[in-house]
Design a protein that fits this description.
This protein has helices at 2-16, 225-236, 255-267, and strands at residues 26-31, 44-45, 56-63, 67-79, 87-93, 102-105, 112-114, 121-125, 130-131, 134-143, 151-154, 172-174, 186-188, 203-208. With 270 residues, the chain is of the alpha+beta class. The chain has 2 domains: 2-23 and 217-267, no CATH class; 26-208. The two termini are 34 Å apart.
Length: 270
């Protein structure tokens, strides 16, 4: 019955869908690098057998409106060269990762470095997971050839967030494996080379307010049948994105979500 109703909904979608306004990705939270620092913390996922040395960079941020996360970027480098990453992993927590809950992660295998001298961007993508308004922590690291003594470094940045809320100068290095012997396995990112004070670390989170643009396309019309196919695939995979009506009663994914999604596409995005 469910597959039959899918066909009914899909037919209705094809017959009613019109060209919709393009919904662009935008920065939803950021502490951008302003070129005031040329050093920063080690944020490296070490190769085995050094997993206890894994270091994560931690920054706080807040949102006043909900968003569908699409991408993460941070300015940094791999030292020494060549610039190489196996992957970049980004996580969102509802508190410091030592005690907070993991809410979502970036897509495995999407991590990459966009090389441009000191302007290198270390990047990973999200699956348009929904993040409601609230206060959060973004936690990230990069996997590189630590067996060849390479590490990932992310440029420090003092001052207030440019987009979204968050406390200034309060970045952390988290070492869940305990290999660095930090008290509680976490320490402030120092503001001075001697280890004193605390500073921030640059990052940018991108997202979109357009829920039905499932495939993240930007070419007009951004909302089309491809988005419904994308939605069907995510529904079949049981992805949280498919819970269009955000219901909590089991089963959370049902025919009502298909109707909700069709209505979202018909309403369009600005």
């Amino acid at each position: 019955m469910l597959w039959h109703r899918r066909g009914v909904v899909a037919s209705a979608l094809v017959s009613t869908l019109a060209a919709s306004a393009t919904a662009q990705e935008q920065i939803v939270a950021s502490l951008p690098w302003l070129h005031g620092q040329t050093a920063g913390p080690n944020g490296t996922n070490y190769e085995p057998p050094q997993d206890d040395r894994d270091l994560w960079v931690v920054e706080d941020f807040s949102l006043t409106t909900g968003t569908y996360l699409t991408r993460f970027e941070s300015w940094g480098t791999i030292f020494p060269t060549p610039l190489f990453v196996f992957d970049v992993t980004v996580r969102i927590y509802d508190g410091l990762p030592t005690t907070g809950n993991l809410l979502m992660s970036s897509i495995p295998g999407t991590g990459r470095i966009v090389a441009a001298g000191f302007e290198n961007r270390i990047v990973a993508d999200f699956q348009r997971q929904y993040l409601p308004p609230g206060s959060y922590y973004v936690v990230w690291n990069a996997s590189t050839r630590t067996s060849s003594s390479q590490i990932a470094i992310f440029w420090a940045q003092a001052g207030a967030h440019a987009v979204g809320g968050g406390l200034p100068d309060n970045a952390w290095q988290w070492n869940p494996g305990g290999g660095w012997a930090y008290p509680g396995n976490i320490r402030a990112v120092p503001a001075q080379l001697g280890g004193g004070g605390q500073i921030g670390v640059n990052f940018e989170l991108f997202g979109s307010s357009c829920y039905p643009n499932c495939d993240g396309s930007t070419a007009a019309p951004s909302l089309n049948v491809a988005d419904f196919v994308c939605y069907q695939n995510r529904f079949a995979a049981g992805h949280p994105y498919a819970n269009c009506d955000r219901s909590t009663a089991a089963p959370t994914l049902n025919v009502a979500d298909f109707i909700c999604f069709m209505n979202s596409i018909a309403a369009g995005c600005s």
